[in-house]
């Protein structure tokens, strides 16, 4: 049974991770204090806080129990714990979009059952945290090798649709509230202005003015800059005169929970059947995080970054479990690895030099500052924002800007998603179809078309699941995609077609005995075998695919 | 003295034009009545009416004496006369942006002198019309061969800047009027929405969905579609409730002048010194039209269209003069050839077939319906719009949409303007500079840079002239560019550099004796001589440039 990894026997993976990482622990705190790492701290803080606030606002609107302070506190505590205890401290953790969607589903379920949402949420996380620890001990993280582009891109499309609908519904709602027409229009301008300005600035890397550093800066900070500018506009002249008609971020006056509740819940003031039932969302959180956390972790440790200190997937997932238990006890959202922030963090720590390879100038990483305090400091900053006077600044942001940010996230996540790319090919005029992908030249277009239609249909079925009372189960459907890819699709498409459209991700063949399997860096070395070697054992002269390439394909799964 | 054309002796050019065109006159009315020509009528009507209304609204706001009816009537009458009597009836005439700018300047001058603007304007046109006839008789149209890209693109940049400022100032003014904030915001949305939607739709030719016909349609009708959509939005729900706070197009209830004056002015109820002084704006109109009308006419008769019936530049300019005398008597704006509508008109009448040449599929023109009634009918339709009930439809268009259209016209005119392209190269990061132009590879970049800086400086000097009391003289500055190119630039740049950056336009060398010079089609066959043969006589194995290429460079001079 090739499915079960070697580590699936006790704590072997975690212990190995600990043994390898422990000797390097002191250097994690002592080395690389310089301008580059300082810049990295602020860069990570800003790129993480904008989506965090956006999700927080969505949670505040729907659940009324979780707001900006809760989300920031979760990022702060989880980030600090993870940066201190994890084996790979480069992974930035935070509250993601899928977690937000799941939280809203859990809220809906609690409401339907007429039980306390916060208790239900807390117990789900406590169970989930414990499951994480067990899963880490069992070496379950290794299963990520079966998550191909088929799952990642269907997931990405689903998230894009949900974000787009969230943003659009947010904007439409301005016109149903009983406020002045001027406020409705101003909020529409703020929302669409944020979307368009973010899209424009995010494209800065394609500009030709300035230098690359400047363009990358503008591109990376696009949503932050857009929110700052539109918040500024909303605070001057007649826009500011709109007063409370213009809805701004709902934040408390100082560090405290959104409803004024105490931080620690009385966990046992809750029916036992509720505690048992919370195992359902707990399992779903586990399934989501096996997928989501490990993909971000792999991307943060991509081969191009030339990391030296080694990885620790099992230990990391165990530490993540501890964090989730804690966030559960506090009744605040759980954190996991962030895409694209985690890989951006590693990239920001790389010292690169330009080198000409095959006539093309490329960046070659000379070294990467592998340390813990950039992650720790950015997490700390996220906490500081929850206190006066900074929390007052957050309270100035119009909610409309965040609706716009959702639209931006949806639109900017589509390029690079192969499902989206194939959809564009399907709707294009036949004479104008073109694609850089090998499958486009290798396969009959009718085959590509039926594969794409099927995948789109699946994506929309899952989307409609999220609109039903069982919306919470959507990560199960995502997980089921792995099964569909491995067991169902081969019934309708031949093996060569499937491997061309969706190559399986395998451990590098230079590591066949599992001796070094716990060093998961190997998984970042993806192998595309175009000749049909589907099962793991078979090798063949597989063409190595650059890890960064496949990583970037996963970006939209954030 | 190579400057003076052969025709510069009496009416020779006009007579030749008449003799050649007369035998084909009957067929101009009898042939080619089919679906293609019918579509062309409506296409031309819509692509001409949108900018016409925009300019009309600008004129109404500034002069209060010229509005939508005046501009449409001018297009209608001039178009009908031109289509019936001109030698080349494919040229669509109408009120252009430069004419609008000039009209506003004439208004400013009349105001400063405290004389009747309409009388001053009328006399200027009557003189100008007579001058046109004299110029046509003298064969002056041939001078257009000296108008190189240097003049065209400086002119284009100037117009783009003026349009951009007009649009932006229009939007800024919403906030200075004492209306509700909701109306200000709604107008801002309508303006920027029109700009962005127009830009988006105009890019349809680069889309891949649908077929080429659909994409070309969307692209050609972009501003019309954008105005229709945003006008629709402005008419529903709370936007419509804004009532008179939302400024709409100022049209009379039925066909009549904007202020209710009679159509025929008492021309002699005006001081004699004013009649004499109007010779100044008259000369400027002449200089502008020699430039603007003939460029559009050449473009409408580009070699690619395979026209068979021959051209008639001298006769056309004479007929244009007659039209200007008439518009002058009515006190409505003068018309001349429209760019890009004139070449679009011819293109819409071409029957093409796809052909593979050198491995690339190209459109080859099989025949073009050379006739008079498409032009005549679209002109007639423009007049019909001035009567009930259609005029009521025009009155529903928010003025803000037209401000947005100005921004669109400014932005969409820039690509293809070599001054703009070189400006982009100058501000680009040196490593990322790239250009398809031959001069980019042939010349030292420092030279390109100083040439571009000089040209930009000239463009902005002329722009600042338009802000002064002598703004009316801007066509003189444009005309002076020809002198600058031929006499001043050679002092600072060597001949090879100038010919690379700005090749002189010459009659095709296969027509050296002037025998067929009156068949101006030859001028569309532009010759680029990279080896430095500046004077007309010298031939050399000049590389023939496709006419359409150079024509498209002139598009922004509209």
TrEMBL record, chains A, B:
Region (Disordered): 527-558
UniProt cross-references to Pfam families, sorted A to Z: HCO3_cotransp
Record's compositionally biased regions (Basic and acidic residues): 528-541
Top-rank taxon: Eukaryota
Subcellular location: Membrane
Main subcellular location of this protein, as a coarse class: membrane
Bicarbonate transporter-like transmembrane domain location: 11-176, 182-503
Annotated Low complexity bias: 542-552
Record InterPro entries: HCO3_transpt-like_TM_dom, HCO3_transpt_euk
UniProtKB keywords: Membrane, Transmembrane, Transmembrane helix
Transmembrane helix among keywords: yes
Transmembrane segments: 41-60, 90-110, 122-143, 155-176, 188-209, 221-239, 270-291, 312-332, 456-484
Membrane topology according to the record: Multi-pass membrane protein
PANTHER family noted in UniProt: ANION EXCHANGE PROTEIN (PTHR11453), BORON TRANSPORTER 1 (PTHR11453:SF82)
Protein name: Inorganic anion transporter
Taxonomic source organism: Aureococcus anophagefferens
Species classification: Eukaryota, Sar, Stramenopiles, Ochrophyta, Pelagophyceae
